[in-house]
Amino acid sequence: MPRATYRLLLILALTMTTHAKDWLATINYNVAVPGQQMKPYINNTSLLGFGLDARKFVSPSVSLGASFGHQVFYWRSGEPASLENGFFTTTQYRFLNTLPFMLSSHYYFHLANGMKPYLGAHVGGYYAWQRAEMGIVVKEDRKWRWGIAPEAGVLIPVGTLHMNIGTKLSYLGLPGEALLGDPQRQLFMSFFVGLTFIDVNWH
Q: Are 196 and 162 in contact (CB under 8 A)?
């Protein structure tokens, strides 16, 4: 996806919080750990991830919103790969890009010290782009998958902003053709930290 698209999404999220009431926008840095089903395909922790989240409060404790993100997994493997014409024993370079476009709902708990723990869930689609390189042989697969991502976090006041810390469990469904040991359903755990811009009357 072009960088201009990322910039546009970021500008839109910030604009909503600047010109509208009862909105929240968050920019997160994500680290993701592959689940057991993903490990035969990619076994490395992903340090390349970010997320954008915009939420509208329908009450002081409940918000509805939308989220977007990008997580990149990479693994260099020396395991033999089985293809239609036989086995390859050369080094493999495996990539998995996930781009979620989801709707969300969250519930917030209000503590006396100003911190606000929350629970929520994201539901929608993931664009999954997988690529495996073995010498001059390249296998690639791109598809949309439905998914769900329960989430837990806490908003911590930092001056006029809030720090957002939490974790999210992402599940990608919709079975398709397997790619070099790639599971047809994927699961990974994300840990994130970010900044949250809020224009909300909590009372």
A: yes
CA dist., res. 177 & res. 98, Å (int) = 17
**Which one is predicted more confidently, 21 or 72?**
72
**DSSP secondary structure of 97-114:** EEEEEEEEEEEE---TTS
In angstroms, rounded to a whole number, what is the distance separating the alpha carbons of residues 159 and 21? 19
- 184 C-beta neighbours (distance < 10 Å), count: 14
Q: Whole-angstrom Cα distance, residue 27 to residue 203?
A: 25
Contact 160, 189 (CB under 8 A): no
Lookup: tokens for 185: 């359903």
The structural domains of the chain, with segments of one domain joined by +, span 3-199
The arrangement of secondary structure in 3-199, i.e. its CATH architecture, is Beta Barrel (2.40)
Neighbouring C-alpha atoms within 13 Å toward the C-beta of 186: 32
User: Which one has a higher pLDDT value, 57 or 39?
Assistant: 57
- The C-alpha atoms of residue 148 and residue 126 are separated, in whole angstroms, by 9
Residue 100: count other Cβ atoms within 10 Å of its Cβ: 22
Kindly report the number of other CB atoms within 10 A of residue 187's CB atom.
16
Rounded Cα distance, 132 and 124, in Å = 26
